[in-house]
Structure formats: C-alpha cells, structure tokens
C-alpha cells in the first residue's frame, strides 16, 4: 500500500531526520519538538527539494508553528514537475528566519502564477532577484500579500520586468517594505489596492499606475510618513477609500488628485464612511494640489439623479485656509461637503 502524504507522516519524517542528524534514536517528546527543530540551521541537511513543496505548503497550523519559522536556508528548488499556477502561493510565507531565496526552476508550460502570500513576512531576506528571475516569463494573476513585511528588502526595482497585466489584487502587496521607491509596471485588471503601500515608511513617491478598475482603495497610503508626491490616479471605479492617508503625512505636498472620484458611488446614504476622502492628515498640501483634488471630483448630482446624497471631502483647517470660498464652492456644487 502506498504511503499516504499526511501531517502524521510528515512529522514522523522530520522527527526521524532530527534523530538521524543527532545520531540519537531516542524518541522526541512533543514538548521538546519545537526546541529540536530550532537547532536545525538548514532544511537542506535533511530534506530534498523534491519533497519541500509538500512539506512547507500551509497544510496545518502545527507545521507553521513548529517548523516554518525556524528555516534559515533552503536548497535550490526544481519544481518543474508541478504544473499548477498556485505552486508559489504561500510558498515562503512566514519564514521569518530565511536569509535568502534559493534559485527556483518552474515548469516551462506554466503560463500563470498566483503570488498570494508568496514571500509574506520573510523578514530576514534582503534580495528577491532569484524569485523574480523564476517568474519573469509568467503572468501574475494575484499579488495579494506578495512582499508584505519583507522589512530588509530595500530594492524591488527588478519587479518592473514582471507581467502584472492580469493581476487582480495588490492587497497589501508591498506593505511595510522599507524602500524609498517602487518601479512602474503595467496594470490592467487590478481591482483591489487595499493597503498596497501601507507602512512603507521610506517611500517618497509612486509612479502613475493604471488604477481605473480599482474599487477597494482603503488605507492605500496609510502610514507612509515620508511620502511627498502622489500623481493623479484614476479612481473612476473606487467604492472604498477609507483612511487612504491614515496617520500623519506632513511630508506630502504634491497630489495630482483622484480622477472621477465618486463616479461609482452607489450607496444611497449621505456621508457614507467608505466614500469619505480625508486629507486632514496631510496639512502641507499645496493650493495647486488641493485644487487638483477638487477639480477631479465627480459631480454627485450626476450619480444621485433622484435625490442627492452628499459625501465628505475632509481637508482640515490648515488646508481649508489655503482656499477661497469660490474654490471650495466648486466641490460643494458637485454635491460634496467640505470641511
């Protein structure tokens, strides 16, 4: 009878490998399992790349707790026998002690890849070039939590060569990355930009991405304290902009505005929380930037044709003082309340 690939057998194999490496066949108590695993410097010492995909796949919380976080090194990976677009999904996720990404070979017939959680919380790696090289000729369909909390990665310029045209989600994709710049890459189908750049404390500016299909933009720039410039972005499809600039943004001066913001608003409720644009956390916006915002607002009278449901533009006292009554009236005449 063929051996079954299950959690029990995986843990038995790991336990046997530890005993073989120690030269001591004494059974390992469950209470000591975590400590024994923590002593292992490299997964390469006891497991082949042919079995690594099954072992580190997120099949159980037990493996995640007792094994994944302890891995410091992984051998080069030959995954050419796997023709599944989710082959890299969550693959290195939560390997907080992994110091480098190995070389990876993927199936040449594999056209698309899902990168959800692929490198999420890999706090100790500093270079992603091996990973990028592995997927250069693949179409990325999902980048949700792709590089989230890779705190030591300072340069992600290589991702400009990746194909994101079919990618639908950038939810938290670059959250907490400590780079000062993010390259331009083509986007066409992305709808989710929730927390995309949140926590990027060193980020100074972003390129002008195609955000025309984005409907979830909440916390997009939350806690980007060094941010100075945001170009005009197309918010024609936006339906959730909650806390887009959450926390202090004293360095933000140049804002291109959000094209057609309000066009896709369909909730028949005044001051709907998901529709509020709050710029009060960016008190140093120039007058030109404020007018870019106002001029790009969509006329809500064209959205709510039977009854107007006004939505909120919160500028804060400092920004309001930069505008004349006539300038503010441009927004109010479009059905926005300005404060």
CA-based gyration radius = 24 Å
The beta-strand count equals 11
| Average predicted local confidence, pLDDT | 89
Strand order of the largest sheet: 9-10-11
Describe the structure.
With 339 residues, the protein is an alpha/beta fold. The protein has eight helices and eleven strands. Helix 6 links the parallel strand 9 and strand 10. It is elongated and about 80 Å long. About 7% of the residues have low confidence.
Write the layout of secondary structure elements.
Blueprint: H1 7-22, H2 33-38, H3 49-56, H4 61-66, E1 77-79, E2 104-106, E3 112-114, H5 129-134, E4 139-142, E5 229-230, E6 233-234, E7 254-255, E8 258-259, E9 277-278, H6 287-296, E10 311-314, H7 316-320, H8 325-332, E11 336-338
Parallel strand pairs: 1-2, 3-4, 5-7, 6-8, 9-10, 10-11
